[in-house]
Design brief:
By secondary structure, this protein is mainly α. About 60% of the residues lie in helices and about 0% in strands. The termini are far apart.
């Protein structure tokens, strides 16, 4: 399939084929700089709100692309799923969700830096410290494993 070897091939598909999740998933997975690419710009808007497509995008580019999944970000359950893959989901949520206790806790657990999007920083500081500690332990473990090889 051309999309596997040339990710920009997706851009040249007809509109019906661009809605094919298999083609889109291949194009996304085979792209290193998704957000600034022709592929990202040619994805039909409705595809961003498909959970499996949004998760595929987040696995490739967890920092910038989430803002495109506007419908998914309006729903608490889907926002909770997405934030496990990107620490910056909380920054794109609407205010009512951004202030939700469960959203805040899960977001900080995913990545300590989510604390910057929270109003009551002091309240969640211990959780952010624990999150940072887990990240450092994980990084330390990965470094040790890498050095052994």
């Amino acid at each position: 399939m051309a999309i596997e070897s040339n990710h920009d091939a997706y851009c040249h598909l007809n509109e019906q084929d661009k809605l094919d999740k298999e083609y889109l998933t291949l194009a996304i997975k085979n792209h290193n700089y998704l957000f600034h690419s022709k592929v990202f710009k040619s994805i039909p808007n409705e595809m961003f709100n498909e959970m499996d497509i949004a998760l595929t995008i987040l696995r490739v580019d967890p920092f910038y692309t989430i803002q495109s999944a506007k419908l998914l970000l309006k729903n608490k359950e889907t926002a909770l799923v997405l934030m496990k893959h990107s620490p910056y989901v909380i920054g794109w949520l609407e205010v009512n969700l951004r202030n939700d206790e469960e959203i805040i806790i899960e977001s900080i657990k995913t990545h300590f830096d989510a604390l910057r999007h929270v109003k009551e920083k002091e309240k969640y500081l211990p959780l952010a410290k624990e999150s940072m500690k887990k990240l450092l332990q994980k990084e330390k473990h990965l470094l040790i494993v890498f050095k052994k090889k």
